[in-house]
Amino acid sequence: LVSSLSLLLGTTITISSNHWMMAWTGLEINTLAIIPLISKSHHPRAIEATIKYFLVQAAASTLVLFSSMTNAWSTGQWDITQLHHPTSSLLLTTAIAMKLGLVPFHFWFPEVLQGSSMATALLLSTMMKFPPITILFLTSNSLNSTLLVTMAIASAALGGWMGLNQTQTRKILAFSSISHLGWMTIIIIYNPKLTLLTFYLYSVLTATVFLTLNTTNTLKLSTMMTSWTKTPALNTTLMLTLLSLAGLPPLTGFLPKWLIIQELTKQEMTMTAITIAMLSLLGLFFYLRLAYYSTITLPPNSTNHMKQWHTNKPASTSIA
Question: Pfam families per the record (predicted)?
Fold first, then answer.
């Protein structure tokens, strides 16, 4: 309960503050609140994930503080929207990229998600991304555009590429998150409201996927192949949600991608738009594979898992 309240408090402080010190305080409260939730199971992998998460977030928060101090030193301003010093801008972009898990600061994110329970992984993928994205939104006028676009394209590429090779559902969703963050950060300088729209839709769809996987206790693809015997209706919904996350046209997830490509074309960044659209095909492949495994059919190979019929009691959630 204390952790949940602290999470809400930290997020609220950060998204509603105009002063750098208040924003930093909110980020720190958030970090400290999520740590007991990750380490709750006392599994060695969970403890490892907690330490990784703490070190990365502490380093990023230090950079945020350093960036705001440098800016205050040169301009005399502690206001978040008045970030005019070029070094501060560069440092802040790096710090927020670390907090979000953008390439090349993404290494911690899949590992931390793999060591967390499904509920904590959901919090890390959605709610914990909200304060850093809000800071990007507030400082979008003075961010380094070249650096952001480069990191965004790299994130879209790596998120899709690495997701192809995974069999653990949490790692697949971690790389999916990195790929979506690429779409969010590429447009934040040109149209920040589109970033928020993308984030809101991504959060709703990801929450649906995580909660479904939590209900069916699906941690691996091999378990997913047999989960349709237990909850066929839920698995059908999961398939539609996955295809929506992939951005297939008739579904909701296509809307932000369409608007982002349109905005990039208006900004005469046609090649950038084509590149990121082509890279999203990599993500489409593993979403299709997940959708295929969850509902359409059983692949023609035997699995080591027993089919989970309705009479079975759900197994306790493990993180191994």
Answer: NADH_dehy_S2_C, Proton_antipo_M
